[in-house]
Design brief:
Elements (H helix, E strand, L loop, with lengths): L3 E2 L5 E2 L6 H13 L2 E6 L2 E6 L1 E3 L2 E6 L14 E7 L6 E12 L6 H11 L9 H8 L1 E13 L40
Length: about 190
């Protein structure tokens, strides 16, 4: 598959009609909870939910930070294997915002609440997202940039972005640690 760089920084690929690649995107979307989004020259690790053949992400407010995701038309989504953590597929998706007054909002917000770990209050999370966050739908365009058997040689390693995130409280204290004893010699 020949790849050509565009002026926006995204890779351009021809639409893939290979049912294996498209099924792999859907299966990884259902099985994995973390992906990487590439847009505006940056990569962002995100937790997501797969619903109605699209990736759904909540960002902003107290959630993960994805600056200007709502102003982006297309993103590259890098998905990894759940078994060994290796990159399996990279695909292009179109971005649209799911607003609280949209018909899809109840289903999408319910799926995101169910998929979100460590929420303070499950009953008010969707309302807080409606007020302070952006819920984004990323729908596959059919363009697959990398897939098994055709992965690029670039490792895509990047330093994590600065964040104000902290732990919720002090680290746990461990009292009376056991001393490691050497086995006795006879």
């Amino acid at each position: 598959m020949a790849l050509v760089t565009t002026t926006r920084g995204l890779w351009q690929a021809r639409p893939v009609t290979d049912p294996f690649a498209l099924a792999l995107v859907a299966e990884l979307g259902k099985k994995t909870g973390v992906s990487w989004l590439r847009y505006d020259g940056r990569e962002h690790a995100v937790w997501h939910v797969w619903l109605d053949d699209a990736l759904h992400v909540v960002s902003g407010g107290d959630e993960q930070q994805l600056p200007d995701i709502e102003d982006t038309d297309r993103v590259e989504v890098v998905m990894r294997s759940k078994e060994n953590g290796g990159r399996l597929v990279t695909w292009v998706g179109t971005v649209s915002v799911v607003h609280p007054d949209d018909e899809a909002w109840p289903d999408v917000s319910a799926a995101l609440v169910a998929g979100r770990l460590n929420l303070d209050d499950l009953t008010t999370a969707a309302q807080a997202w409606a007020e302070r966050s952006v819920v984004t739908r990323i729908e596959p365009t059919g363009e697959v940039l990398e897939q098994p058997g055709a992965l690029g040689s670039q490792d895509h390693a990047a330093a994590p972005h600065a964040t104000p995130a902290t732990t919720r409280g002090p680290l746990p204290r461990i009292l009376h640690r056991r001393k490691k004893r050497r086995p006795g010699l006879s």
